[in-house]
Specification:
Elements lengths: L6 E10 L2 E11 L4 E5 L6 H8 L7 E6 L7 H5 L1 E4 L11 H9 L8 H8 L14 H13 L5 E5 L7 H16 L3 E5 L3 H7 L2 E6 L2 E6 L1 H6 L4 E6 L4 H7 L5 E4 L2 E6 L2 H11 L4 E7 L2 H13 L1
Parallel strand pairs: 3-7, 3-8, 5-6, 6-7
Antiparallel strand pairs: 1-2, 1-4, 8-9, 10-12, 10-13, 11-12
């Protein structure tokens, strides 16, 4: 089992009546790697996580965790999970919850170790139900890691966290990955995926649109992003930017260009009052948005 990939999914399909929640999804996650699963609401992310936990039965394809059937005792013993709907008893204190979850495992961290790694030492005596949304997320993360899992499934882990808590989470996730834990996370924070992921998988309407390293996905969308304020109207910009797609709203323009310097010279000649100029490399968000639009076209 030690040489098995953490996750192997081949041609997975899940259908609810006429709706294909997953349609031929394939991916592999190796130990010591982090895969970020991205996509709009309804893309199939939650269904895929549910299938990995044995909560949803696929209609076709195959799925294995360390070579084991999802939901089996062998798979569950190797997996730590952090979901949006936790069902955690709200009257227990944070320390009691971590101690309880530690008791489910053969070789867990100590409760103090798990709380320290999640940054919740100061919350130990607080009842779970009294915590803010971001603090609850931190506690749920501690519960997910206390069993020293070889596979960590994180559903929107930093949702509701403040900047300090999010940075702490990122640091701990990176250290677990570097120590050999396989990590799969879903997130709406593109920066999170860009910073942490070895591989990004973009889902849309149950299908994989892209699967690659963040840098490789960004390289598919060549050029730089330009933003600026201008007095030029739609017609004037269309003539000036012939062949270049752009967005104009409230006097502010956004576009992508492979030759920003040459384009800027033309813009300044037509509008000497052009202002608020920003030029930056293509972001992962730009590339993912372009891929989604291409699929929809």
């Amino acid at each position: 089992m030690s040489n098995q990939p953490a996750v192997v999914i081949e041609g997975l399909g899940v259908q609810y009546r006429a709706v294909k929640a997953l349609d031929g999804v394939s991916l592999t996650l190796e130990a010591g790697k982090l895969l970020a699963l991205l996509g709009p609401n309804g893309a199939g992310k939650t269904t895929l996580l549910s299938a990995m936990l044995g909560l949803v039965k696929p209609n076709r394809g195959s799925l294995a965790l360390f070579g084991q059937r999802p939901g089996s005792l062998a798979a569950r013993s190797l997996t730590g999970v952090m979901l949006q709907n936790s069902g955690v008893p709200e009257l227990l204190s944070v320390a009691e919850l971590v101690e309880l979850f530690a008791s489910y495992h053969l070789d867990p961290m100590t409760p103090d170790q798990a709380m320290t790694r999640a940054g919740i030492e100061a919350l130990a005596r607080r009842r779970f139900g009294s915590l803010s949304g971001g603090q609850k997320q931190q506690v749920l993360f501690a519960l997910a890691i206390v069993g020293r899992p070889r596979l960590l499934l994180l559903d929107e882990p930093s949702n509701g966290m403040d900047l300090q808590a999010r940075a702490r989470l990122w640091q701990t996730v990176q250290s677990l990955r570097d120590a050999g834990t396989a990590v799969l996370l879903t997130t709406h924070y593109i920066e999170e995926a860009d910073r942490l992921a070895d591989e990004v998988v973009l889902l849309d309407r149950g299908r994989v649109l892209a699967s690659d390293a963040p840098a490789q996905i960004k390289s598919r969308l060549s050029g730089s992003e330009m933003r600026f304020a201008t007095r030029l109207d739609q017609v004037a910009l269309s003539e000036l930017l012939a062949g270049t797609d752009f967005e104009l709203s409230g006097g502010r323009c956004r576009l992508l260009s492979t030759q920003p310097e040459r384009l800027l010279a033309r813009l300044l000649h037509a509008d000497p009052d052009l202002a608020e100029l920003e030029v930056r490399p293509t972001s992962l968000e730009d590339a993912l948005s372009a891929l989604t639009l291409e699929q929809a076209a």
